[in-house]
């Protein structure tokens, strides 16, 4: 369009106005024109869609003006590459961040609807497994709030994390159909599609200038189509983009095959391509050999880098300055192949000399490691890697050779060191080590909590640390206070705001002002009243959905997270059985009534984790139906734990269970959300628990368990769980009760794998930590009775959580790794031609 043409277009007030009547009219309008429905026949989902589109219209000027900013050549943009973004529902947070929640509530009410009912319609995009994906979502929100130009790049999985149902107490996986009613929050951009190649072979040639070059002749080509989602900052104009890629056939039909009558062959290509982004892989399962997973990783990384290069060149940029335009963060090893892909693009496609390209690459990438678990450190069998990405394997060999030459000088011919450092694992079957590729190709490497970052330097990345100590940093995780307090706990947020004003929402350290009220009787009363009210809400929800009556005055003891042996949900179960045995032994025993709440998904192929769910639900069935105990202990397993379902849970907790074996949990972020909402933590010295305890004060944290050093010593000295089992009567009684078939209708075989694993192997040292855990839980019970003390501790927990805001974490990344600064977005009217 010409400038005159665009200038003649007028913006309808219905698309931007914020008056209640305008909003009401806009919703009705969208219902009619987008949903094609009269109000009388519209479903709640139609109304949700109409409202979502109304909100989307209102953020459009901010979004488009932000995109304009990316294009300015002098603006450095953060590109966050992540295979997972666990965003949670959009509508609620967008209303809050745009500051229009109350207006919309009113407008919707004027149409005879309740905002809560519409919010409940949203199918959340479950494009992540857990902590890592949720962290990426918190970081995207903070980047926007802090006005940092940023793009998130990832995969638009057609099926995200499975929905969890419980049948007979077992987890059953159901496909997540998040797109079935359409997604109002995304805009496809087929005009910006890129092609991604796979397989085939490489070929050397001499270019016009006589230089030696390599070209890649692929076997297949897939089209990557971007779908953009706006990420709105809190009370700022900045609205960044999350760009997720969907795979499509390069040609929908292979016409040559079709013309020869091979119709099925022709559509094969389409099916093959679309499969690529069909489903998110659950973590905690061995990925080796899962070719599709490697294809997914390469696919989105290649799309992202091609997109960045296009943007950079489109703004007149020189590729030798690519790193000045983009700071690319590798969220774990999943996008690590980006190092080789950027080299390929720069050297093969854009003809930069190797050394210049390498300098650009290293200056571009930063790498975050999120786990020490050896099974999660990705490595790909060399034949698989080579057959899928033949050119990249050559590039990796070249990087490796140059890198080992450098390392050889440093380690003076220590061949064992070199073998350990190599990008290729040659100890047996040969593998490409993705973490090593990420370390070599990045200028900064960070862990996600102080302890984790230290352990990285001492264990899995020790050799790299010796070589490049200056590359290593710590960036303790954080969570966004907008979703994890303001949105999920409006009552507490209001109380806080009444006492210290609103600044805490963007400067979470301001919560410290609450310390002044920790002893204030009236404030304590209000604090308790709110906790009681949110507990009542959760109790009502549990009653309605699971038909379990729970006492809102009982201690809500909550463990919600992925189900994994290292997270030790079964240690929590041993405590429940211990209490149960105490009551059975002495029915008049005076114990604090507790409601144990669990939630979390097990990876579909992780048999032991699924058995852990079954043991929780089986114990729940017995305990909840035993008239002697059920007024004192209740056990609830909340099915389908996801972002939506978690939002009412954090505010309702009295006690947060963070009980992983020391050294196993990289950081945790649930621990932060609980504490922020005034729960006290029972935890080990693991991950960010260590820093949370330091921040809230040791006296406001229930610590138990072996330290990392003690864990190591015990394991080195030959840990024998059987001894602990035999010499700890309560433990023995609890385990025997499981083993006897008491919780499994007499079936002694059902839990045998779990029991055997504990008494004969116990890799996560539950039995060694059992007594300390039980003693600590007894202290928790006593303290809960001292209502004022508990309330003071609860207030101090919230008051001292400022450090754990994702805003703080993002500021640190910006300063220490990305070297980017905020830029305010000016709202120019959209009728203007491009500046
Ligand atoms: O850093 C974010 C989170 O990542 C994990 O979930 C992961 O997938 N590696 C870790 O297990 C968490 O400890 C960590 O908080």
Characterise this structure.
- This is Alpha-1,4 glucan phosphorylase.
- Its cofactor is pyridoxal 5'-phosphate.
- Belongs to the glycogen phosphorylase family.
- The chain is an alpha/beta fold.
- The chain folds into 3 domains: 1-73 and 90-123, no CATH class; 77-89 and 124-475, Rossmann fold, CATH 3.40.50.2000; 481-806, Rossmann fold (3-Layer(aba) Sandwich), CATH 3.40.50.2000.
- It is built from 34 helices and 25 strands.
- Strands 1, 4, 7, 8, 11, 12, 13, 14, 18 and 19 form a 10-stranded mixed beta sheet that branches. Strands 22-21-20-23-24-25 form a 6-stranded parallel beta sheet, sandwiched between helices. Strands 15-17-16 form a 3-stranded antiparallel beta sheet.
- Helix 27 (689-696) links the parallel strand 24 (680-683) and strand 25.
- Helix 15 (390-411) packs antiparallel against helix 16.
- The longest helix is centred in the N-terminal third of the chain and has 28 residues, at 44-71.
- The radius of gyration is 28 Å and the shape is globular.
- The relative contact order is 0.10.
- Mean pLDDT is 95; it is low at 1-11 and 830-835.
- Ligand CBF binds at residues 130-132, 135, 370-371, 448, 477, 665-669, 687.
């Amino acid at each position: 369009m010409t400038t005159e043409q665009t200038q003649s277009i007028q913006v309808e007030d219905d698309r931007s106005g914020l008056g209640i009547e305008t909003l009401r009219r806009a919703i009705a309008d969208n219902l009619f024109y987008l949903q094609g429905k009269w109000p009388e026949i519209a479903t709640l989902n139609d109304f949700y869609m109409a409202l979502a589109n109304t909100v989307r219209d209102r953020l459009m000027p901010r979004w488009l003006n932000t995109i304009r900013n990316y294009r300015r050549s002098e603006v450095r943009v953060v590109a966050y590459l992540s295979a997972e973004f666990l965003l949670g529902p959009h509508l609620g947070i967008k209303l809050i961040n745009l500051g229009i929640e109350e207006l919309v509530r009113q407008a919707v009410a004027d149409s005879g609807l309740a905002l809560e009912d519409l919010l409940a319609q949203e199918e959340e995009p479950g494009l992540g497994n857990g902590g890592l994906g949720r962290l990426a979502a918190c970081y995207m929100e903070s980047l926007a709030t802090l006005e940092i130009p940023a793009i998130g790049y990832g995969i638009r999985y057609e099926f995200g994390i499975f929905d969890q149902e419980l049948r007979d107490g077992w987890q059953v996986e159901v496909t997540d159909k998040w797109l079935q009613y359409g997604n109002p929050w995304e805009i496809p951009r087929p005009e910006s599609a890129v092609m991604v190649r796979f397989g085939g072979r490489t070929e050397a040639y001499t270019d016009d200038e006589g230089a030696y070059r390599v070209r890649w002749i692929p076997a297949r080509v897939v089209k990557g189509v971007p779908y953009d989602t706006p990420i709105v900052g809190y009370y700022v104009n900045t609205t960044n983009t999350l760009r997720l890629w969907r795979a499509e056939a390069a040609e929908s039909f292979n016409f040559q095959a079709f013309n020869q009558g091979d119709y099925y062959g022709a559509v094969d290509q389409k099916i093959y391509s679309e499969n690529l982004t069909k489903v998110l892989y659950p973590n905690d399962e061995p990925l080796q050999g899962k070719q599709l997973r490697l294809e997914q990783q390469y696919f989105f990384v290649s799309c992202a880098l091609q997109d960045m290069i296009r943007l950079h060149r489109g703004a007149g940029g020189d590729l030798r300055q690519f790193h000045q335009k983009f700071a690319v963060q590798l969220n774990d090893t999943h996008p690590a192949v980006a190092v080789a892909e950027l080299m390929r693009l720069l050297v093969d496609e854009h003809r930069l000399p190797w050394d210049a390209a390498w300098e650009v690459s290293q200056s571009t990438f930063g790498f975050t490691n999120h786990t020490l678990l050896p099974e999660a450190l990705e490595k790909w069998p060399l034949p698989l890697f080579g057959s899928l990405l033949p050119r990249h394997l050559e590039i990796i060999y070249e990087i490796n050779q140059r890198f080992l030459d450098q390392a050889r000088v440093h380690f003076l011919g220590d061949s064992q060191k070199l073998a350990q450092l190599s990008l290729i694992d040659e100890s047996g079957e040969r593998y490409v080590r993705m973490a090593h590729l990420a370390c070599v190709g990045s200028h900064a490497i960070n862990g996600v909590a102080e302890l984790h970052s230290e352990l990285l330097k001492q264990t899995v990345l020790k050799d790299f640390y010796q070589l490049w100590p200056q590359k290593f940093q710590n960036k303790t995780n954080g969570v966004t206070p907008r979703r994890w307090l303001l949105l999920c706990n409006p009552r507490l947020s209001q109380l806080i705001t009444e006492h210290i004003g609103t600044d805490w929402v963007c400067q979470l350290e301001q919560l410290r002002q609450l310390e002044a009220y920790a002893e204030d009787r009236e404030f304590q009363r209000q604090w308790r009243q709110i906790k009681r009210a949110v507990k009542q809400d959760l109790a009502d929800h549990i009653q309605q959905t699971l038909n379990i009556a729970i006492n809102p005055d009982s201690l809500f003891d909550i463990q919600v997270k992925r189900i994994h042996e290292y997270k030790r949900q079964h240690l929590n179960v041993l405590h429940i059985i211990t209490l149960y045995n105490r009551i059975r032994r002495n029915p008049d025993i005076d114990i604090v009534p507790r409601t144990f709440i669990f939630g979390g998904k097990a990876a579909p192929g992780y048999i032991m984790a699924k058995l852990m769910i079954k043991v929780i639900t089986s114990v729940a069935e017995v305990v909840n139906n035993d008239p002697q105990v059920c007024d004192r202990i209740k056990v609830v397993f909340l099915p389908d734990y996801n972002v939506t379902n978690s939002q009412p849970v954090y505010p309702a907790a009295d006690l947060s269970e963070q009980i992983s074996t020391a050294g196993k949990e990289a950081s945790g972020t649930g621990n932060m959300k609980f504490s922020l909402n005034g729960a006290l933590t029972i935890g080990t010295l693991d991950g960010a628990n260590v820093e949370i305890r330091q921040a809230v004060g040791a006296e406001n944290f229930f610590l138990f368990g072996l330290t990392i050093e003690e864990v190591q010593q015990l394991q080195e000295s030959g840990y024998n769980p059987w001894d602990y089992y035999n010499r700890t009567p309560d433990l023995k009684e609890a385990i025997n009760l499981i083993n006897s078939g008491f919780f499994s209708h007499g079936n002694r075989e059902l839990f045998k794998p779990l029991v055997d694993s504990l008494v004969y192997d116990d890799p996560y040292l539950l039995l060694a930590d059992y007594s300390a855990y039980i003693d600590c839980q007894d202290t928790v019970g006593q303290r809960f009775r001292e209502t004022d003390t508990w309330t003071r501790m609860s207030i101090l927990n919230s008051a001292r959580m400022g450090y754990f805001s994702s805003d703080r974490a993002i500021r640190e990344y910006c300063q220490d790794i990305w070297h980017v600064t905020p830029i305010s977005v000016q709202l120019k009217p959209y009728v203007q031609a491009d500046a």
